[in-house]
Design goal:
Number of domains: 2
CATH topology of the largest domain: 2-enoyl-CoA Hydratase, Chain A, domain 1
CATH superfamily of the largest domain: 2-enoyl-CoA Hydratase, Chain A, domain 1
Helix content: 40-55%
Strand content: 15-25%
Structural class: alpha/beta
Strand order of the largest sheet: 1-2-3-4-6-9
Low-confidence stretches: none
Distance between the termini: 28 Å
Number of strands: 9
Mean pLDDT: 96
Largest sheet: 6 strands, mixed
Radius of gyration: 19 Å
CATH class of the largest domain: Alpha Beta
Number of helices: 11
Order of helices and strands: EEHEHHEEHEEHHEHEHHHH
Oligomer: single chain
């Protein structure tokens, strides 16, 4: 189905694996568009209730493939960002399902941005996050300038972006860039802890929560209070809400269908 991606689905979990290990899963044009397509597929598939995004081999994603980009010396940087990266980041943030980054190795440049755009990030101890753009005289893209200051504060974001600092997995955890750090040998087990939960959770409510938290980044209290009321009406009409209440009354564990 895809040339540079692996797409697997099992038990409500879709796993998307960037598959260019020989170049540390760097982005070429095709990978960008395949990833956009994979997230469209995930959105349409009601069986998928949680997504895992990871990289094949030693790296998560090393960012843009510079050799590939040099093959077209007349390309427009703005056009490339608008067509390849911006639709991808928007698709991830607008997906009404949780996305878990399985950070198995280095995440640099646009690869770092990908991690920050996920809802949960689980990193191996060996992983590093690097806003590497400045090292070749470029500025952060793929959402890093939006996500990073909100996670780590303006001063730290400025330092990381202007110095291209390598952030260890442990430091990323302390800064709030990732949710959990484990030895590489325990990475799959740690990710499974999250996917097991989300694959059997009330998916519609979680999708609404994601929308609400996105909006809260640029809304005032009055707007959020109204938005909470609006979304609570939607959540209250779901099958999973009725099941949750019934399970509470019957003193049993709820069986959510994601509907």
């Amino acid at each position: 189905m895809y040339q540079f991606l692996k797409y697997e689905k099992e038990g409500g979990v879709a796993t998307i694996t960037l598959n260019r290990p020989e170049v540390y899963n760097a982005f070429n044009n095709e990978l960008s568009f395949e990833l956009q397509d994979a997230f469209k597929a995930v959105k349409k598939d009601d069986e998928v209730r949680v997504v895992v995004l990871t990289g094949e081999g030693k790296a998560f994603c090393s960012g843009q493939d510079l050799k590939a980009s040099q093959a077209d010396p007349n390309r427009s940087f703005a056009e490339s960002v608008r067509k390849r990266y911006n639709p991808l980041i928007k698709a991830m943030r607008e997906l009404p399902k949780p996305i878990i980054a399985r950070v198995n190795g280095v995440a640099a440049g646009a690869g770092c941005s990908l991690v920050l755009a996920c809802d949960i990030a689980v990193a191996a101890e060996e992983a590093k996050l690097i806003e590497v753009f400045v090292n070749i005289g470029l500025v952060p893209d793929s959402g890093s300038s939006y996500f990073l200051p909100r996670l780590v504060g303006s001063a730290k974001a400025f330092e990381l972006c202007t110095m291209g600092s390598k952030v260890s997995a442990q430091e990323a955890l302390e800064l709030g860039m990732v949710n959990k750090v484990v030895p590489l040998t325990q990475l799959d087990e740690a990710v499974k802890g999250f996917t097991d939960y989300y694959a059997s959770a009330p998916t519609k409510a979680i999708g609404l929560i994601k929308k609400m938290l996105n909006k809260s980044q640029h809304a005032n209290l009055e707007e959020m209070l109204e938005y909470e009321a609006y979304n609570q009406e939607i959540a209250g009409s779901t099958v999973d809400h009725k099941e949750g209440v019934q399970a509470f009354l019957e003193k049993r564990k709820p069986v959510y269908q994601g509907k």
